[in-house]
Design brief:
The complex is a heterodimer of chains A (158) and B (754). Helices cover 34% and strands 16% of the residues of chain A. Chain A is an alpha+beta fold. Chain A has a five-stranded mixed beta sheet with strand order 2-1-5-3-4, with helices on both faces. Chain B has three domains: 5-31 and 456-600, Aldehyde Oxidoreductase, domain 4 (2-Layer Sandwich); 43-136 and 209-258 and 264-296, Aldehyde oxidase/xanthine dehydrogenase, a/b hammerhead (Aldehyde Oxidoreductase, domain 3), CATH 3.90.1170.50; 303-413 and 420-454 and 605-752, Aldehyde Oxidoreductase, domain 4, CATH 3.30.365. Helices cover 28% and strands 23% of the residues of chain B. In chain B, helix 18 links the parallel strand 25 (624-634) and strand 26. Classes of the chains: A alpha+beta (158), B alpha+beta (754). At the A-B interface, helix 2, helix 3, helix 4 and helix 5 of A face helix 1 and helix 18 of B.
Amino acid sequence: MAGVAVSTTINGDAVEYLCQPDETLLEVLRDRLGLTGAKEGCGTGDCGACSVIVDGRLVCSCLVLGAEAEGREVETIEGMAHGDQLHPLQQKFLEHAALQCGICTPGFLIAAKDLLAKNPSPTEEEIRFGLAGNLCRCTGYDKIVRAVQDAANVMKGA
Amino acid sequence: MNFDPRFSGRKFASVGTRPIRPDGIDKVTGRARYGADFNMAGQLVGRILRSPHAHAVIKKIDTSKAEKLAGVKAVITAKDLPDLTDGDAAMYDILDNSMARKKALYDGHAVAAVAAIDARTAREALKLIEVDYEVLPHVTDVDEAAQHHAPLINDQVFTEGLEEKPAKPSNITKRTQFGHGDVHAGFAQADFIVERSFKTEQTHQGYIEPHACVASVNPDGTADLWVCTQGHFVYRQHCAQLLGLEASKLRVTSSEIGGGFGGKTHVWAEPVALALSRKAGRPVKLVMTRDEVFRASGPTSATSIDVKIGAKKDGTITAAEATLRYSCGPYAGSWAEIGAMTAFACYKLENVKTVGYEVLVNRPKTAAYRAPSAPMAAFAVESVVDELAKELGMDAVDFRIKNAAQEGTRSSYGPVYGPIGIGPTLEAVKNHPHMKAPLKANQGRGMACGFWFNFGGQTCTDLNIGMDGTVSLAVGTVDVGGSRASLSLVAAEELGIDYSQVKAVVADTSSLGYNDMTDGSRGTFSSSMATISAARNAIKILRERAAQTWDIPVEDVVWEKGHAIAKGEKYGNLSPLSLKDIAAASGKTGGPIAGHSELVADGAGVSFATHICDVEVDPETGSTRVIRYTVVQDAGKAVHPTYVEGQYQGGAAQGIGWALNEEYIYGKDGRLQNPGFLDYRIPVCSDLPMIDTQILEIPNPNHPYGVRGVGETSIVPPLAAIANAVSNAVGVRMTHIPMSPPRILAALEAEREG
């Protein structure tokens, strides 16, 4: 089967790849580009573990085709820190122990980054609904919500 | 190792602090490698063909077309996994569950598998495998399966535990009984008796990471397995036995694990991946889809439980009795037995009797789920306890305090308790501000208690001191939720050094002695015990090296705050030697310095919790919202309190999902109708409130610091606490979990119709 040639930008870098027409962006990221930070928890857009941002929009990369990334800007968890400087959300997730097993963490961080980009001062309820597309089975979400609240405060002060 | 009473007043330097976990940065940057994040050169993709039938004889499997498909490198069936279990019935069941041998026993049961050059080819190949099934009658409901006319799942099953072997086979594999005293006499003394029957539906552990592994078998009999597991040593034993490999030649590396909760305690697809690799002569990566996870892994038992409790007017319970029927899937288990042991464990009872029945059904093999079997029993018992308190006109907390087990109480399952936390958690709940928070219309408050045994088990730890004075701690218990942080704290505490000088890793099966898996809340309990022991062994060597350096007797050297100190006025001119000083000189004083420990961590202290829950029920829709939730639990000693809180909150959240939403729904055809997160709905962020926690510390006398396991007890009370809250909100006793909107509406309607 003929591959589709795609030119895109991932975490600020120009990237080119060939993918099959039915291949998801998640499969491309993980299996072709070695960006395994996005996880497949369900493959049906229900768990949010594969969350990435495409042209400023939060998506489940398991529901986007690899071919659809053509000409777009993709942000993944691997691009969230600047060098050795963690993003405030990453730092606050560590400080608040907002992860136990950590499999959902990349998705939560991407979703929280998108949430704070659109709403820098969310209420607890807005955080809870803003992150309702991401499943966590370990934490009960309490420490995740607190970490996002704390990060929002830090980012506003920055 | 016994609790050192000096520690009860001891000020810990590291234990009890809340540092960032050593594996944290990898997990927030996406670098942590989970089961599906690992690859090997020449790796193939494995996929499994699963039965669409709940119960069927496999008459013939034709794999010839699949084998001819370009890109397919191996196709296997049960013939490629010959029975090497040598009469070990439990292992035979695991083998048969990995790949059906004669019959498919549930919707989703593996019947064949392929390895191909890519996922697309593997999927195509599955479609080309032809299986000739003879479909048999099936049964998925636990009560129906227990009837004598139910379709037989295994005609070799004759109920164990009866006085006489039954004449006919049945789906009931075993009867167990616990208790003491005379319940008939006890009920005769009672002024009030409440008796009710309950049901709970089957749930899944719901870990976000599907089962995943990479298997590589070499022609010389050596093999590697990279896998997400709660116990890589156990997986090595299982796989070596099932594949006929020598255990020492199979190296199993546990990846980071994306949740397990009991669901990753025995092998599923791993023997299949190894068999595919052996046949194909190449590494094979096998990752389950979410559909496969639901249909073929996990789940809990579905249950049907009868409870009867009697009490005198003054609130003393005179007798308690329960009959518990737990589904096991199609293979024998001991799930009802555990339920029967835990049911009344919170109480001081003179007359108690519990009977458990293990029931086979055409559902996936039941697996452990966080304090397995205890939440359902607690739901039934704590519901009746609440109702009895109402009959007596007593406060629900006071009634429980009056009957709570204490140190010296003979437990309902046999042993006599040492120091325990049920009383203190109840007292803490009685005084908790949550109990005084105002409630509005359609809101109700409930509380409930829970118990879990906690396990210890075989444990092995290596503590190596580098020449730069930093410490690498190799443990064999998989870290499911922060134990590398807690074990680093324990090593730092014992050595008297800073947490930042210790780095804990989980070693593979070729690098460390055998460890039982991380289950039974044993990770931090048992590995901390082994870490303390290893650190003390290292300190002994550190003291010897200092003594050698100073040329004084080792008895005159003590270890304090990370330093060797020469004790006695005659050594006044000897400056203390730090761990770093001694490590730097180690090459000249006798070589590397390390401490090792191999032990059986006996004496895991039992654990109790009491939860409080407020709910609001919409009488129009039957929808329930948890609006306030508090967990009070005894940790013995909280090593890393933030992660202890996390265990409390996580268990409560899973319990909330179980109580209100989660259930396996089977169609009449015996097929699972909701094998995905859209229809099997676990709680999301917007479903839950903050979950308040209170950590009590009643030291475990069998651990040097007093540590008890903390992971599991938190899922035991929620079903009951929420059921009590909903019942208080709507005025109708809820007896069927989950309390989904249709069940609540039906209960309200039944009440209206009287």
